[in-house]
Amino acid sequence: MSSVASDEDWMRRALSLAERAAAAGEVPVGAVLVRAGELVGAGWNRPIAENDPSAHAEILALRDAGRRLGNYRLPGTCLYVTLEPCPMCAGAIIQARIERVFFAAADPKGGACGSVFDLLPADVRFNHRTACTGGLLGDECGALLRDFFRLRR
Fold first, then answer.
1. Which of the residues 26, 50, 58, 84 is marked catalytic?
2. How remote is the C-alpha of 20 from its chain's centroid?
3. Can 19 be counted among the known catalytic residues?
4. Widest CA span of the chain, in angstroms?
5. In degrees rounded to 5, what are phi and psi of residue 42?
6. What's the confidence (pLDDT) of residue 128?
7. What residues pair up with 34 in beta bridges, in sequence order?
8. What's the half-sphere exposure (Cβ side, CA atoms, 13 Å) at 38?
9. Is 97 exposed, middle or buried (0-12, 13-18, 19+ CB in 10 A)?
10. What is the mean pLDDT of each run of 10 residues along the chain (153 residues)?
11. What is the reported pTM?
12. CA dist list (Å): 106 to 50, 51, 111, 128
């Protein structure tokens, strides 16, 4: 990765983590958290391996960043995730004070960035709002998810 990574570069990094999840038999979702152009957290889906229903890629990336930075608040960070965050992950994103989320594929069954729920950018009842942008490498990440589930059927 070059010294100045683009949004697409960071999403490709998340996609490589999603591929790691798929290789382990987990739903292929990957996430990276970036602050000031530096990787501060990374994760991929591991609920099966961890026996933990909260071990989503986003949660694991936030936990990783919290440990690295020594704080549960992560202002000024940007999360890149290959699938639209679910409500659980959106809640964690709000609590961590993530500034922005880029997601690749929309989740029409449980997405919380506008597909089913609109928890991050629009719900003014929360004391923190996170900007969201969807569709970054959406075709590639969506294909990985479709292929994964097609093989399971």
1. 58
2. 14
3. no
4. 42
5. -150, 150
6. 80
7. 39, 78
8. 6
9. middle
10. 81 98 97 98 98 98 98 98 97 95 97 91 74 96 95 84
11. 0.94
12. 25, 26, 7, 22
* Angle, vertex CA 38, rays to CA 83 and CA 128, nearest 5: 60
Question: Which residue type sits at 37?
Answer: G
Cα–Cα distance between 41 and 34 in angstroms, integer? 7
β-pairing, 100-105 vs 38-44, is unpaired
pLDDT at residue 1, as a whole number = 46
Alpha-carbon gap, residue 53 to 30, rounded angstroms: 16
